[in-house]
Predict the structure.
Amino acid sequence: MNIHEYQAKQLFEEYGIPCPKGAATSSSDEFGTCIDSLGEGLVVVKSQIHAGGRGKGTFTDGFQGGVKLAKTKEEALDYANKMLGNTLVTIQTGEAGRKVQTIYFTEGADIKKEYYLAVLLDRASSRPVIVASTEGGMDIEAVAENTPEKIFKVFIDPGYGLADFQVRELVTKLGLSKLESKNAAKLIRNLYTMYCEKDADMIEINPLITTESEEVMALDAKVSFDSNALYRHPEIVALRDLNEEDPKEIEASKADLSYIALDGSIACLVNGAGLAMSTMDIIQHFGGSPANFLDVGGGATREQVVAAFKIILGDANVKGIFVNIFGGIMDCDVIAHGIVEAVKEVGLELPLVVRLEGNNVVAGKKTLDGSGLTIVSGDSMADAAQKIANLVK
Amino acid sequence: MSILITPETKIMIQGITGEFGARHARLSIEYGTAVVAGVTPGKGGQTFEHAGVEVPIFNTVAEAAAATGATVSAIFVPPPFAADAVLECVDAELDLAVAITEGIPVRDMVRVKRAMQGSKTRLVGPNCPGLVSPGEGEDSKGGCRIGIAPGYIHKKGHVGVVSRSGTLTYEAVYQLTVKDIGQSTCVGIGGDPVNGTSHLDVIKLFNEDPDTHGIILIGEIGGSAEVEAARWIAENCDKPVAGFIAGATAPPGRRMGHAGAIVGGAEDTAAAKIKVFEECGIEVAVTPSDMADALLRSAEKKGVTLS
């Protein structure tokens, strides 16, 4: 689960991770109060969306930049009014962009140098890793590619926790002054505590900055959380912003379905995550384009199948449907009844190819055949994928 | 033979009185698996009955192991308690803990994995379908089924299957069985980013098992476990190996159902992993329908008989 920068900064404050003073609002009436709550000087006006590349983004009305530096209150108000309600397109949002519904104002910082700092899971070692770099404010993957010697990592023993020598190693390699090192060490410790206590998936500060007065602070913040651990963090769940999610994905999560919207024309409904992913792949292999990832799980009910059909058909790009079920334990006939019921309920007019295999498959196929509906049957995954790709062409 | 489990392996089920655990305990008993104990704290002394088999229930794993000789546990407890359930198996010095549970917090697994270092117990999973070593009987009955895989699609034989995905494992197994090619052991290692047993761990076991003549390696986007396994195969394994990677069409940065199925960079995409498979002499299945055929192609090239 992702949160906004301003929410991340509030958590940073709780954990003693310094950042420039800021205030956020979703209402243009409060812009003035927010700006007044900050100190004198420059104001940074920041669009709040769950996507990176905001600074270099463009709004759909042509206004440039989702992050702006204002010299006066009037200038800040002007920028904020242009951003709020406007749609921002960045390299991470896709062409459709995201509507900006919250503006975050922060004090301008007196930057001496920019760095990079993050904590996340290293899958290969199954340990948390802290990643730091002297190259702040840049795309870290590009830094890793071009100048790997400028990236420093410490792997943390989850039994012992972050060790003092590891913190010393990081601040030394970053080449910080004595006072900066002291401040950075405290920040790194607090960052790791937050990562653990909040079950974060990743916390990324890019840039982390030093100031002329040798303070160290987080200028930006990108924080995501482990969805599996949300049950023990109601305070994090409360930060969820449904405006940032695809409405179809929200519907799907209500029905306990795992759904991800894509931009193709062949919808798929599958049981199992691995099979669902490879169903998308095989559609593309035979010249089609998948409209979604949809895993109905191992114990799908008739109601879930009906809900799944409704979600799929809510996507205007969909020109055909591919149902791919390997009923291991799941009864194919239950799925077949679900499909028939769903098709009757939603009045399907698009081509539908069904591949059923596994437990009670004979009864399932009989249910489909006897339904009087136009359902094309596929013998194998490949056969069915070819059929739906041809029908949609 | 088989790896990790045999038809004689005695298993216990943690969470046997829950709906999910009970359902699969019954299916394992019907398959002919030696389910000898159940563990549910507070229900010790009760009995779980199915098809004429009486399974005693214990309060703790250690008691269950001492009383019944069970060496393996299948864990069906809910996510908030699953990490503790694994640690209990470690403490009781079981050979194998198989965590079926989906949705365990990553931090819990990171700590469990660290705590298991140097212990006697191996963990398979979590978020996995478990293991099957098929038996000689009708629909492969008489084998050892631990977890949630459909037993009847298997057939006893000589192909090892290892996968992060449950349904893709079933797909591969079914393709083999309809071609009359049996399996030695099928292992679902799970779709989470932190798991106990890796692709490579299982590949090494298959390589050493004289009864496994060929291997199907099924992976997906995210992480580097498949790449690590492939590089080892290139150096150390002469057996025919077919590989498949799911997720070629997955958008970067999105979790595709499995917590671990996420493209993070250029190295963990499907295309990158398939390229490594090809470099390492693994016969790549072009589509998931091609997994058994890919293994047959590899076996033919190496002059190996699979059945």
